[in-house]
């Protein structure tokens, strides 16, 4: 009979550690998927926060003449997933905030320029501070190099250069994880995504975290503390996610500096 300490699944690693690591990764995946789903469902509410209504009305007035002149036939999509909560029209050149809300690029930049120009704005929907703006263009918009798009990209870079490099509280970092990790993964596997050294750093961090999780040398060993021993592994996974989001914030800030 083979000893469980030697391992029958992976040679040299006990089966209990392999099963615990597999359960941890499965549980982490389910947790992240649940957070992403919950965040998506929470963001279906397009109601403007009462504290932002005055600023949003001002932004709508400033946008109305420009929008009608550019597209007189522009329709509104009240209650639709493609509606911009500021202009109440179909989103164009969409931009996503760190809290996961999506607006027209022109709308959110106008909201910033004619509001708190010297400081970071708060999301018109949830009032969380907007520390980073992320492109959410459609495929057609990505391949289209219009003057409006170039201007919006410049304003987004200006905003990120000013505010994405500022210290962010840990609570806000945890709240921003679903949005930032989703954009990080999308860029990580894209052809023209993150630079090579950035990818290597993330891969090395993931490998080191995996080695720690499957290693029998834990801060809280599973063999001695049972299910409580998984807490340090969960803590390591959360720290890895937060570290990846911090790296991505810095990457976006550096890109904004290069684009200026």
TrEMBL record:
Could you state a single Gene Ontology molecular function term? ubiquitin protein ligase activity
Its GO CC terms? endomembrane system
Q: Which UniProt keywords apply?
A: Membrane, Metal-binding, Transmembrane, Transmembrane helix, Zinc, Zinc-finger
Whose protein is this, by species? Ridgeia piscesae
**SMART domains in alphabetical order:** RING (SM00184)
In terms of InterPro entries, this protein maps to:
DUF1232 (IPR010652), RNF170 (IPR038896), Znf_C3HC4_RING-type (IPR018957), Znf_RING (IPR001841), Znf_RING/FYVE/PHD (IPR013083), Znf_RING_CS (IPR017907)
Which superkingdom is the protein from? Answer: Eukaryota
Q: How does it sit in the membrane?
A: Multi-pass membrane protein
Cellular localisation:
Endomembrane system
Q: List, for all copies, the residue spans of the domain called RING-type.
A: 84-127
What Pfam families does UniProt report for this protein, alphabetically?
DUF1232, zf-C3HC4
Transmembrane feature ranges: 17-38, 191-213, 225-248
- UniProt name for this protein: E3 ubiquitin-protein ligase RNF170
């Amino acid at each position: 009979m083979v000893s469980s300490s030697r391992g029958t699944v992976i040679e040299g690693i006990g089966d209990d550690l392999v099963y615990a690591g597999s359960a941890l990764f499965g549980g982490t995946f389910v947790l992240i998927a649940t957070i992403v789903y919950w965040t998506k469902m929470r963001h279906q509410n397009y109601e403007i926060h009462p504290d932002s209504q005055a600023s949003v009305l001002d932004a709508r007035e400033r946008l109305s003449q420009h929008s009608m002149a550019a597209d007189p036939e522009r329709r509104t999509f009240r209650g639709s997933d493609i509606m911009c909560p500021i202009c109440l029209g179909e989103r164009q050149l969409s931009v996503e905030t760190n809290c996961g809300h999506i607006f027209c690029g022109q709308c959110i930049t106008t909201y910033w320029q004619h509001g708190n120009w010297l400081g970071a704005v708060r999301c018109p929907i949830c009032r969380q501070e907007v520390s980073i703006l992320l492109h959410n263009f459609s495929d057609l918009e990505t391949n289209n190099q219009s003057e409006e798009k170039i201007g919006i990209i410049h304003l987004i870079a200006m905003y990120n250069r000013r505010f994405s490099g500022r210290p962010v509280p840990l609570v806000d970092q945890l709240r921003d994880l679903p949005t930032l990790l989703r954009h990080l993964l999308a860029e990580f596997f894209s052809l023209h995504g993150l630079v090579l050294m950035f990818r290597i750093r993330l891969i090395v961090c993931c490998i080191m975290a995996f080695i720690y999780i499957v290693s029998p040398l834990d801060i809280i060993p599973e063999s001695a503390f049972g299910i409580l021993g998984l807490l340090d592994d969960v803590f390591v996974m959360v720290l890895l996610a937060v570290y990846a989001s911090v790296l991505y914030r810095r990457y976006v800030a550096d890109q904004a500096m290069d684009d200026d």
